[in-house]
Backbone:
């Protein structure tokens, strides 16, 4: 019984450790320090918004915004539409989302109220598409959501993954050894 429990714990923790390694690789390729849990939730919310498809003739990067705008700079530095190519833009989108959310709260709207969420969906999509950002950048696949989760929680998963693997191996091997007290 102890051996089976130890093996199960070790396998689960090995999967958790592998997931954290995916997070480390994705973060390093995308040159992103970290994504906090609030930003992760915002990115999931942004992904579900009704962004239009990119125009056939191609999007105008930066739109009519000044070249000195920090978000325009992020968009221009985007290398491709893979997750790692747009990771910094996604991080910038979450900061833009937080900023717009704060502005609406200053106007007197209640945070996370249905009215505010509806207004955010419309205003945020309008604002972001004015920069030349469309669904190909904002939409996250299930795999990309998984990778962003791994980026967000990679440190915690790595620590507990290795600790759990050690514990699992200790439990699995404890039944095989005879104690001097036996």
Residues:
């Amino acid at each position: 019984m102890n051996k089976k429990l130890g093996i199960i714990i070790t396998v689960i923790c090995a999967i958790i450790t592998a997931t954290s390694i995916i997070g480390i690789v994705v973060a390093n390729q995308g040159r992103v320090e970290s994504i906090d849990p609030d930003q992760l939730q915002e990115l999931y919310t942004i992904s579900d918004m009704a962004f239009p498809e990119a125009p056939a003739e191609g999007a105008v990067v930066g739109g009519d915004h000044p070249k000195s705008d920090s978000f325009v700079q992020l968009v221009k530095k985007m290398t491709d539409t893979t997750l790692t190519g747009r990771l910094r833009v996604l991080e910038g989108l979450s900061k833009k989302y937080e900023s717009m959310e704060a502005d609406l709260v200053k106007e007197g709207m209640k945070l996370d109220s249905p009215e505010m969420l509806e207004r955010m969906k419309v205003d945020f999509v309008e604002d972001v598409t004015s920069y030349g950002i469309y669904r190909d950048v904002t939409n996250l696949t299930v795999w990309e959501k998984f990778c962003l989760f791994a980026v967000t929680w990679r440190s915690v998963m790595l620590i507990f993954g290795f600790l759990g693997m050690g514990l699992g191996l200790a439990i699995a091997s404890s039944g095989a050894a005879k104690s001097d007290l036996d």
Remarks:
- The first helix runs from residue 2 to 29.
